[in-house]
Amino acid sequence: xxxxxxxxxxxxxxxxxxxxxxxxxxxxxxxxxxxxxxxxxxxxxxxxxxxxxxxxxxxxxxxxxxxxxxxxxxxxxxxxxxxxxxxxxxxxxxxxxxxxxxxxxxxxxxxxxxxxxxxxxxxxxxxxxxxxxxxxxxxxxxxxxxxxxxxxxxxxxxxxxxxxxxxxxxxxxxxxxxxxxxxxxxxxxxxxxxxxxxxxxxxxxxxxxxxxxxxxxxxxxxxxxxxxxxxxxxxxxxxxxxxxxxxxxxxxxxxxxxxxxxxxxxxxxxxxxxxxxxxxxxxxxxxxxxxxxxxxxxxxxxxxxxxxxxxxxxxxxxxxxxxxxxxxxxxxxxxxxxxxxxxxxxxxxxxxxxxxxxxxxxxxxxxxxxxxxxxxxxxxxxxxxxxxxxxxxxxxxxxxxxxxxxxxxxxxxxxxxxxxxxxxxxxxxxxxxxxxxxxxxxxxxxxxxxxxxxxxxxxxxxxxxxxxxxxxxxxxxxxxxxxxxxxxxxxxxxxxxxxxxxxxxxxxxxxxxxxxxxxxxxxxxxxxxxxxxxxx
Length: 536
Known about the structure:
- Among the domains are: 101-169; 269-463, Rossmann fold (3-Layer(aba) Sandwich), CATH 3.40.50.
- It has 22 helices and 13 strands.
- The protein has helices at residues 10-23, 47-64, 77-85, 93-98, 101-116, 121-125, 134-144, 157-179, 192-203, 230-241, 247-261, 282-289, 320-331, 357-364, 381-384, 394-399, 426-434, 444-463, 472-488, 491-494, 500-516, 523-535, and strands at residues 35-39, 67-72, 89-92, 182-187, 207-211, 215-218, 296-301, 337-342, 369-371, 387-390, 406-408, 420-421, 467-468.
- The strands form two sheets. Strands 3-2-1-4-5-6-13 form a seven-stranded mixed beta sheet, sandwiched between helices. A six-stranded parallel beta sheet has the order 9-8-7-10-11-12.
- Helix 19 (472-488) packs antiparallel against helix 21 (500-516).
- The longest helix is centred in the N-terminal third of the chain and has 23 residues, at 157-179.
- It is globular, with a radius of gyration of 24 Å.
- The two termini are 39 Å apart.
């Protein structure tokens, strides 16, 4: 049986458990009839990720007298021992599955039915478990955990195994929750298999909140029981606050963008697109890429092929890979503009290897299609692009602030504010690209709107998180995590190897802090107590 990766040294783990045995109160609750779940099936078992969720759940348990159960994918005896020191029971999904052969049988029949009906990627996306749309969750999991970048058909070992496994998991978890009804679920993500799990918790009557080391967010579902992802919530937030934004917000957006292009803000994993790289002028771009100076420059902003491919909602493309391939196919028939393909800077962190963007470019390149090297700062795009094309990436919200028109097909936070082109079908998209040489820069009014929307999303929303964890302990956890990201860069996102040193560092700091400060006084714990009072 595969062990869950728990990157911590035995000495630090022992110290952590001993500290808990001295300080944790009311551990146990073995006779409880109510259950609070911490879903760790997608969480890296590192202190900065798990401790906020654990303390939040303990706060809820203090008021509810419920038993806390942590769900992991695989077993890990060391992690199980740590959880026990908090009075938390660990249940691995693998164990739950193995004890439910009835679920395996029904999942095998459902997998066979999918294969008999053609087994296309589109058909997989529509697969349901009862009312729960599990197909998209399975689709995202396959791309994220294999060398597959798109699913044209599921007739291969990797897809069949994953489909069967995830159907078995959701079915056996359904049966388990029936016997151990959830009061509350502490979650981490809205995509992949966790999205389907959260819909299942929702169906079993649980309240659900996403908890991280920065804050807490409500998890909501649409009429089809799909989790409403961040982009939709961000869009609604921008709509609600746009009328209050004025000149000061525009200036603040300009400052934030200037710092972003210097690699001073934004997600750590994204800073590599800017920091320390060459910035081209329009003349540089034309010269270095060999562009026709008489033509407009249209930049195709590629997404990572394997990272949460339905974050921008349903589109008329199968996935990110299909969008990129179709866009290059259309571009190959249009030679009256220069097409510049910009690979996503974080693609290597998401194992984009076998079906790489570079290989796709080699298949579709023409005399009018070029590729931008990773050595060039993405800031250059605002200097030489006459338009950009994206499903809904952050680049659309950024470069619109410089008057660059944007074509989108997904649902990003900046959709529908009057400065993006939004074709509604493949035929409209193809028509838009074939006529794109006619595209004009955004008006001054559109640019101001773009800056206001950018400010609301990137500055205001962060300042006004609904429930913020910002006490000294939360800052200690975040600072340690940030240090790890800064020093490990992209390596952290590919695997846990090498993170023991940093996880030990964060853990020892946390232990020392909690030896002199009651864990019940932390923002994490108090939020659990207070949120239970508000909910129940």
